[in-house]
Specification:
Blueprint (H helix, E strand, L loop, with lengths): L21 E5 L3 H13 L3 E5 L2 H10 L4 E5 L7 H12 L5 E6 L4 H10 L3 E4 L4 H54 L6 E4 L2 E8 L7 E7 L4 E9 L4 H13 L11 E3 L5 E3 L2 H15 L6 E9 L4 E7 L5 E3 L5 E3 L17 E5 L5 E5 L1 H4 L10 H11 L6 H15 L8 E8 L7
Parallel strand pairs: 1-2, 1-3, 3-4, 4-5
Antiparallel strand pairs: 6-7, 7-18, 8-9, 9-12, 10-11, 12-13, 13-16, 14-15, 14-17, 17-18
Helix pairs in contact: 2-3
Length: 427
């Protein structure tokens, strides 16, 4: 390249930065490089030079410049070609690239921007304009540096949050296993019938719990609990309540009373629920309440005495397939003191079965957005009349999935199924 020097410099400003920025000047004109370098050094920049695009690439391999001033028209590798190669080499590290050119057509400027240039200076270069463009470039680099630092902080924070989430997820998985262990037996045969239990939380852990305990000779106690809300606090409350209805420590089971001979028998369910209501209000500092179904089954006669505290009605499916849903409704446990609860009786005959479900079934939404309700439950059970034992719950869940279109349900689902055979007709 030939011609007169193009820099028209009249400034005497100096850079007060503590850390000089490294500037690469690329031009095949020695005089042009000298004039540019002289001004840049006077302004406080550290300068390195290259007389061609190829030489500039070699320099950049050893020294990464923060700003680049490159002539557009050079023998061999042009400024455009050098800019493209430089951007590919620099990777994530960012440098501010200014092309020096006599070109001013819009399509040519667009070509430079497309190659990766940040700015242009038209020859002959005015010193004040060059100084202003360099200052603007430094501002861009500073913003880029701050953005990179903030992105690093964000990345590190997200990584830490992921580690915390993974740790919490691991803890929740263990908590789920512990909660599931509160229902150690999912199927058990008695002299008088078969009992199946089902528990499925909407998340890792939930507020539903089902269980049973031995009552007087020939009697079986059942309970189904649904604590308000979801998650850890609800699950902790179910664990506490399980202790009040223990099958292993009968003297601590509030649904039982001890007889003079040391044996136990069921208390009237309405009394047991009232006692539990006062215990929760007196001993538990919680905003949770819960619904409860407490039942005593006489395995010899099929008589069932039930206390219902806001829980969905129990369902009896007769041997013929006919369905009966009935109950007293009642008030949930743990809302207020002095509430009176009631109980009622139902009768099972050989071949009948009793089904107690949480509202996660009847309040499961359909694809239209409506709850399936008691009528929808009856339709499902009518189709599953011949399905027995734990398979009934699996089939019920498949039916709910089909009706709702959901793979995960918005509420916990739990249930008890007692299939009565009669003590003299047990297979």
């Amino acid at each position: 390249m030939t011609g007169n020097p193009t820099l028209q410099d009249g400034t005497e400003e100096t850079d007060t930065s503590d850390r000089p920025k490294l500037v690469l000047v690329v031009d095949d004109s020695r005089l042009q490089r000298k004039i540019l370098s002289s001004s840049l050094k006077r302004w406080g920049y550290e300068v390195i030079e290259a007389d061609s695009g190829e030489a500039a690439m070699e320099v950049c391999a050893d020294h990464a410049p923060e700003l680049v001033l490159s002539d557009w028209m050079m023998p061999g590798m042009s400024g455009i070609e050098f800019c493209k190669a430089f951007r590919e080499m620099s990777g994530d590290a960012y440098s501010y690239f200014i092309l020096l050119t006599s070109k001013s057509e819009k399509n040519e400027v667009a070509e430079g921007l497309d190659a990766g240039a940040d700015d242009f200076l038209t020859k002959p270069v005015d010193g004040h304009e060059l100084r202003a463009r360099m200052t603007a470039g430094e501002r861009i680099l500073e913003m880029q540096r701050e953005l990179t630092l903030k992105n690093t902080v964000i990345t590190e924070t997200l990584d830490e949050l992921q580690r915390l989430y993974d740790s919490l997820d691991s803890d929740l998985i263990e908590a789920k296993q512990l909660q599931q262990s509160l229902v150690p037996e999912r199927f058990k045969s008695f002299d008088g019938g078969d009992l199946s239990l089902f528990l499925r939380s909407s998340g890792h852990v939930g507020g539903d719990l089902v269980g049973f305990y031995p009552a007087a000779e020939g009697h079986l106690g059942l309970y189904s609990i649904d604590v308000s809300g979801h998650g850890i606090s609800s699950a902790l409350m179910t664990a506490r309540l399980a202790g009040y209805l223990s099958a292993s420590a009968l003297d601590q089971n509030i649904a039982l009373e001890k007889l003079p001979d040391g044996s136990f028998q069921s208390r009237p369910p309405e009394e047991a629920i009232e006692t539990l209501n006062e215990l929760v209000l007196d001993e538990m500092e919680t905003e949770h309440y819960f619904t409860l179904m407490l039942a005593d089954i006489d395995l010899r006669t099929g008589k069932v005495v039930i206390g219902q505290a806001g829980h969905p009605h129990p369902v009896i499916q007769r041997k013929s397939g006919a369905l009966e849903q009935d109950g007293s409704g009642g008030f949930p446990v743990g809302l207020m003191s002095g509430v009176t609860f009631s109980q009622f009786e139902m009768q099972l005959y050989p071949g009948d079965r009793l089904l107690i479900l949480s509202d996660g079934v009847t309040e499961c939404p359909s694809t239209e957005g409506n709850f399936i309700g008691e009528d929808g439950l009856e339709e499902i059970l009518a189709k599953l009349h011949d399905v027995a034992g734990p398979a009934l719950f699996e089939s019920l869940m498949w039916s709910l999935t089909e009706i709702s279109g959901l793979s995960e349900f918005p509420d916990d689902v739990s249930g008890l199924l007692f299939e009565y055979t009669g003590m003299d007709q047990k297979k």
